[in-house]
Design a protein that fits this description.
- By secondary structure, this protein is mainly α.
- It has one domain.
- Helix content is 66%, strand content 0%.
- The protein contains two helices and no strands.
- The longest helix has 24 residues.
Length: 62
Amino acid sequence: MKQSDTYRENSDNCRRLADDALDEPQRKRYLRMAEAWLALAEEQDWLDGESSASVEKQPSTN
């Protein structure tokens, strides 16, 4: 399993925990953690030389 896949699983786990949160501060904390794990996954993909689906190609100006 790729490292970025592990990070995405962690993000998914945090989202599930957010769904079961007992209060709003706890829910927001888990959602911030989920976003951080996802950002790490995308950065790891970039470091591994894989293109990210969230990055759009810019049109050529030439």
